[in-house]
Design goal:
Blueprint: H1 3-16, E1 20-21, H2 46-50, E2 59-67, E3 88-96, H3 102-116, E4 124-129, H4 133-143, E5 150-153, E6 166-168, E7 173-184, E8 204-217, E9 223-236, H5 237-244, H6 254-267, H7 275-292, H8 301-319, H9 331-338, H10 343-347, H11 349-382, E10 405-407, H12 409-419, H13 423-432, E11 435-437, H14 439-455, H15 469-487
Parallel strand pairs: 1-2, 4-5, 10-11
Antiparallel strand pairs: 2-3, 3-9, 4-7, 6-7, 7-8, 8-9
Helix pairs in contact: 3-4, 6-7, 6-9, 7-8, 7-11, 8-11, 11-12, 12-14, 14-15
Bound molecules: adenosine-5'-triphosphate and magnesium ion (MG) (3 copies).
One magnesium ion binds at residues 206, 493.
């Protein structure tokens, strides 16, 4: 099945179970300051779950555009490293607003997976929230999944492993215990069951999350029961497509082939399995869809996340040999691939291309000099004597306890300030060399510059459009968020 057919099959299945097919909402959340980008299918129904909004239907199904880059669910650092994460992806979902609850949700999920999609039952593993005996019993007694294939997982508050069976949209908002379905891609792939030390591998891939929405979490972390228990589910279209197309990585499915070929064409890279091509194929989707939904590259908030994704893409193109704007040339390939499902790509094509090209031209003016500094510094670090080596477990790509090479935070700041290298871009390059960035020194340099600007009274007089003081202040905040995401690598639900 092609991914377009899988999308349709999902929606039709739930339509046949009385669900209203609802269109995807924008990637820019409507009237919700707690959310950077739409990160799940339930976002557009948040107020329905909370009881503030009513619809004419109590069951809905969607294929929702999602972006997970920045904010609570941030997968930017995973792209290019795992088989299963994108910045932009489509989440297939079914929703019950005070209608059915655990029993039907689980039965529907099993029916779709094993009867419509005909997945092998002995490849499927289930997790339930540790205390959720009801869900455990439904899976084992009613659906008939052997008890040894149903794993109980708690809410991972600072726990050792990544698994977390209590889903939250953000720090506040609707939330509840969940049950997830994992697919075993086979023992030739590294990875362990959820809740095990090897769970971050890509052998057992989570395909579907069914959340039993029961609470609204407030700023103090207090859980208030929702007016009516509800259901919210999410299945990544790219992940289920990989399973149904018999491939392991999402990047091997039909939808990505044209994009990877386009990336290779524009950078003249012949190795179609190269991680940089996957990053480009991923990032063109995120960038184009964000621009189509009205985000423009800038120095703060959503615009800065978009700029970071674009610059990361450019850096990967640069690594493959591109020396002038190339990324925007992938837009027609994306429109050809996804334009019929998402007409906003067709109507926005010109604007998307122009926006990307301008941003590329701007960054290509500084990337060469910046990269030279970055690479020199890394080379110097790698040269013995190794007085730079410290024993810290913070390195993104290091094994805890191993020595870690640390990139100078002052230099990272200079790259940021003078050459427009977002911290995560520098960290991404460093990670390829097994080097981590001293973010504490980076933050200190940022704070010092702010202080100097303030003392010199230059705050309002800054002339550079891109790097004026006021904007630097805000980027400091973004950077803090970055740091969190780098250090919390693989640690989200
Ligand atoms: P993972 O543990 O693999 O990071 P998750 O637990 O963070 O996934 P959920 O928040 O439960 O994901 O989202 C519901 C579903 O959306 C997942 O089961 C998966 O199929 C899909 N999904 C989540 N994040 C991504 C992503 N970055 N790229 C592609 N699909 C994703
Ligand atoms: Mg999950
Ligand atoms: Mg998960
Ligand atoms: Mg995740």
């Amino acid at each position: 099945m092609k991914s377009a057919e899988i999308r349709d099959a999902f929606l039709k299945f739930f339509e046949s179970k009385g669900h209203q097919i609802v269109s995807s909402s924008s990637l820019v959340p409507h009237d919700d300051p707690t959310l950077l980008f739409t990160n799940a299918g339930m976002n557009q129904f948040k107020d329905v779950f909370l009881g503030f909004d009513k619809r004419t239907y109590t069951r809905a199904t969607t294929a929702q555009k999602c972006v997970r880059a920045g904010g609570k669910h941030n997968d930017l650092e995973n792209v290019g490293y795992t088989a299963r994460h994108h910045t932009f992806f489509e989440m297939l979902g079914n929703f019950s607003f005070g209608d059915y609850f655990k029993r039907d949700a689980i039965a529907y999920a099993w029916e779709l997976l094993t009867e419509v999609f005909k997945l092998q039952k002995d490849r499927l593993w289930i997790t339930v929230y540790a205390e959720d005996d009801e869900a455990f019993d439904i899976w084992t007694r009613e659906v008939g999944v052997p008890a040894e294939r149903v794993i109980r997982i708690g809410d991972n508050k600072g726990g050792r492993y990544a698994s977390d069976n209590f889903w939250m949209m953000g720090d506040t908002g609707p939330c509840g215990p969940c049950t997830e379905v994992f697919y075993d891609h086979g023992e030739h792939i590294w990875g362990g069951l959820p809740g095990s030390p090897e769970e971050d591998g890509d052998r057992f891939i989570e395909i579907w999350n069914n959340v039993f929405m029961q609470f609204n979490r407030d700023e103090q972390g207090v859980m208030h029961p929702l007016p009516k228990p509800s259901v919210d589910t999410g299945m990544g279209l790219e992940r289920i497509s990989a399973v149904l197309q018999g491939v392991h990585a999402n990047y091997e499915i039909d939808l990505f082939q044209a994009l990877i070929t386009a990336a290779a064409r524009e950078t003249s890279d012949a190795d179609l399995a190269s991680p940089s091509l996957r990053v480009l194929a991923d990032h063109i989707r995120a960038c184009a869809f964000l621009i189509a939904d009205g985000v423009i590259p800038g120095n703060e908030g959503r615009g800065y996340v978009l700029r970071r994704i674009i610059r990361r893409a450019i850096r990967h193109g640069y690594k493959l040999g591109a020396r002038a704007a190339f990324f925007y040339k992938m837009v027609p390939d994306l429109v050809a691939e996804m334009g019929s499902a998402y007409p906003e790509l067709v109507s926005g094509e010109r604007r998307i291309s122009d926006t990307l090209r301008q941003e590329e031209e701007r960054f290509f003016a500084t990337i060469e000099n910046g990269m030279a500094i970055l690479e020199d510094e890394i080379k110097a670090l790698k040269k013995p004597p190794t007085q730079h080596i410290i024993n810290a477990g913070v390195g993104a790509s290091s094994v805890v306890g191993e020595p870690v090479l640390v990139f100078n935070g002052e230099t990272a700041f200079k790259l940021h300030d003078t050459f427009g290298f977002p911290l995560d871009l520098t960290a991404d390059v460093c990670r390829e060399h097994g080097v981590s960035v001293d973010t504490v020194a980076f933050d200190a340099a940022m704070a010092r510059q702010k202080e100097q600007a303030r003392a010199a009274g230059k705050f309002k007089m800054a002339t550079s459009l891109e790097y004026d003081g006021a904007q630097t202040v805000f980027r400091g905040y973004e950077v803090l968020e970055d740091k969190g995401s780098i250090l919390a690598l693989y640690k989200d639900g």
